[in-house]
Amino acid sequence: MSFSTRSPMTTRSQALAFLMIACAASAQDIPKDIPAATPAVPAAAAEAAPAAEAVPAAKAKKGFFGRLFGKEPHPEESKADPSEPSDLTTKTDPSLKTDVSDKTVPVAPSDTPVPALTDREKLQALVNAHVAETLQKELEFKPQSPWRLGAGYAPILGMKADFKGMGSVPTTPNIAGQNREYLDGYVRVDSSGNAGGDTTFWNYGSTAQEVGGNIAFQSLASGASGSGGNSITDSSVSAAAGFELYGFYDMGQATVFGLKDKGATWGFRTGIQYAHIDLNNNGSSSGTASTFTDSFSLGGLAAPGPGFNSSFAGPNQLLGDTAVRTLGGSANVQISGNRSLSVHLAISQWGSYLEIPLCKKVDLTLEGGFLIALASGSYDYQNRVSIGNSAGQTVRGSNSRTRILPGFYAGLGLSYEITDRLSLLTNIRYQYLNNYEVTANGSSANLDFSSAYVLGISALWKF
Fold first, then answer.
1. I need a surface site. Which of 219, 246, 336, 371 has the fewest CB within 10 A?
2. Contact (CB, 8 A) for 392 and 183
3. pLDDT value of residue 457
């Protein structure tokens, strides 16, 4: 048996080679994902802190030997101490630090501790998250309501009113001792109370009234409304006190007549309009009226002449106080006086519209639909009906009425966009309603809407 003896030098060489191999493996075990852009540490700083540089190498060797001998590191050793700098923390100048949003955190291997964020970095992350959430809410799409609301001034112009009939007076009882008014004069009670059946307080208008020793007076018959040219027309009727509140409901693009390519839209329109018509008319006319005749005796004396005016106290020429009445007849009369018509209109509008863009901020609006109006008004008048230059008879009357008037409208307008939500709309529309008529004591007032139109100006809001 032969024995080989190794020299001590050979054994030490093998051990040294083994240590070199272990150091090389330990160097390869250092993480490779540390950012390459870390600024170089000055030589002076490197010499001043040799212990800090030695920490990663020590940890690397410990990890190598642990794997080499099959031992896992203790769990407490894998936890990073927040008070100590992390192995992956890059030593940089504080002036070169950036926000968390710009910082790239290296992904370490599963067995490498994750670097902890500083308090400043945590606070900055919270601020960035809040700002991002706020911006997201601001940029979220908020659907626009299809409704637009408009309100403005909307007077009704171009109406006309017709006043027909002079009115009627009740027939004066044919008894003595009372004041009597006629179309062509009067017979009244004098200061003596018409003692002896005669009066000194009377007047007549023309020689034609002297018939066979009597003076004949004509009076409007009961219910006489007149005929012929006694209609008074007022074409200057307007409702200056008018406003409206309405809404547009957008139904989307209009696809007819190629309007879709022009960006036209259509929808429904609904609204309410209020207007007050306050008319005062002082016109005059003439006509033919139904009459009856009362004749008074001159007592055998000649008439004093046309235009005779006596006095209440007298003395004057006497005229008998008892009349002979003849029914039937007619007379040409003049009509003057004052007529007042007041009508409140509450109008409901139902229709549709078509909106066509003309330029960036100006749109053309076409609209049309139906109307239902509630008309409530009153008619008051006082007419003076006379023959020739006489004082004549006064006829009065008043009445009120409420009724529903159907109709329709059609119009066009221009809108100008002031802001994204506010526009100014001006429009003109033809607005027809059935006539409103009210009658009072033999006279009637008729409000005609056949030529009425609305000039409106309003503000239009988008929701």
1. 336
2. yes
3. 96
